[in-house]
């Protein structure tokens, strides 16, 4: 079976003030269904840049990047958003929830970008909030939640459109150790039970222990 993530010879540069800065150099990466790949590296090494490429947010790169059967270079904006909506769930360090919406409304947001009957969305949101342990807080708003609870809601939101791949950028960076561990337990059950593939980028060593594979990044390359 084709891997969910298949990257060969990925190069990425940023141009600013007429200067070209190479951030990713000849990266190869592959991740199968249900794998939890942890990409470790210090701040500034290119982790977020890599996730932006894998998630179809940045297509200005060289090399072959195939994610969930889609070749990412050459897709137009419409193709890219269709790809993101149907295949990818994004998780961020600062959760990126909307404070004036309830947990249920936050989790429902991705459905506005696709055509989905409202009734089935409401049922799916309820099911997902239960899945992440937030059923009793569906009507609360983010300012009244702990960091761990906010990340659970963000995970429910990321799951709404049934992603194949979850891309997580420092997902436990704002959480204490015990809370981080409970979020990692949730990731673990998602990959085992739902066979979701996870690519988590972080500088926190303890996340590596929960991964099925660890890759270390330095100077835009993966170390052997
Ligand atoms: N849009 C951009 N334009 C120019 N340089 C950028 C841009 N985004 C990131 N960079 C640079 O690329 C390098 C890698 O950034 P990033 O991927 O955010 O690293 P990390 O997530 O590992 O901290 C950094 O040196 C950063 O300053
Ligand atoms: Mg980053």
List keywords for this structure.
224 residues; alpha/beta; Rossmann fold; 6-stranded mixed beta sheet; 4-stranded antiparallel beta sheet; 6 helices; 31% helix; binds adenosine-5'-diphosphate; binds magnesium ion
Furnish the topology, listing elements before pairings.
Blueprint lengths: L4 E12 L2 E13 L4 E5 L6 H8 L7 E6 L2 E2 L5 H11 E5 L10 H6 L9 H14 L15 H13 L5 E5 L7 H17 L3 E6 L10 E6 L2 E2 L2
Parallel strand pairs: 3-8, 3-9, 6-7, 7-8
Antiparallel strand pairs: 1-2, 1-4, 4-5, 9-10
Helix pairs in contact: 4-5, 5-6
The structure holds adenosine-5'-diphosphate and magnesium ion.
Summarize the structure.
The protein has 224 residues and is of the alpha/beta class. The chain has 6 helices and 10 strands; from the N terminus they run βββαββαβαααβαβββ. It has a domain at 5-96 and 162-222: Rossmann fold.
Overview of the structural elements:
It is a single chain. With 224 residues, the chain is of the alpha/beta class. The protein has a domain at 5-96 and 162-222: P-loop containing nucleotide triphosphate hydrolases (Rossmann fold). It is 31% helix and 28% strand. It has helices spanning 47-54, 77-87, 103-108, 118-131, 147-159, 177-193; strands spanning 5-16, 19-31, 36-40, 62-67, 70-71, 88-92, 165-169, 197-202, 213-218, 221-222. The strands form two sheets. Strands 6-7-8-3-9-10 form a six-stranded mixed β-sheet, with helices on both faces. A hairpin with a 2-residue loop joins strand 1 (5-16) and strand 2 (19-31). Helix 4 (118-131) crosses helix 5 and helix 5 (147-159) runs parallel beside helix 6 (177-193). The radius of gyration is 17 Å and the shape is globular. 38% of the residues are buried. The mean pLDDT is 95. It binds adenosine-5'-diphosphate and magnesium ion. The site of adenosine-5'-diphosphate has 11 residues, from strand 1 and helix 1. Adenosine-5'-diphosphate (ADP) binds at residues 14, 16, 23, 41, 43-49.
């Amino acid at each position: 079976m084709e891997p969910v993530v298949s990257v060969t010879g990925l190069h990425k540069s940023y141009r600013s003030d007429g200067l070209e800065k190479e951030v990713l150099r000849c990266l190869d990466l592959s991740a199968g269904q249900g794998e939890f790949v942890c990409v470790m590296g210090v701040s500034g090494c290119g982790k977020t840049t890599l996730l932006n490429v894998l998630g179809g947010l940045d297509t200005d790169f060289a090399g072959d990047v195939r994610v969930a059967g889609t070749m990412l270079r050459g897709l137009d904006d419409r193709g890219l958003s269709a790809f993101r909506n149907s295949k990818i769930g994004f998780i961020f360090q600062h959760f990126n929830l909307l404070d004036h919406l309830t947990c249920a409304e936050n989790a429902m947001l991705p459905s506005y970008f696709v055509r989905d009957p409202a009734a089935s969305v409401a049922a799916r949101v309820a099911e997902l909030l239960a899945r992440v342990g937030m059923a009793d807080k569906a009507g609360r708003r983010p300012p009244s939640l702990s960091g761990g609870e906010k990340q659970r809601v963000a995970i429910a939101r990321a799951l709404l459109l049934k992603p194949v791949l979850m891309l997580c950028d420092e997902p436990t960076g704002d959480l204490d150790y015990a809370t981080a561990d409970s979020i990692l337990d949730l990731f673990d059950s998602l990959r085992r039970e739902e066979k979701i593939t996870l690519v988590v980028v972080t500088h926190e060593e303890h996340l590596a222990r929960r991964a099925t594979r660890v890759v270390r990044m330095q100077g835009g390359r993966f170390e052997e």
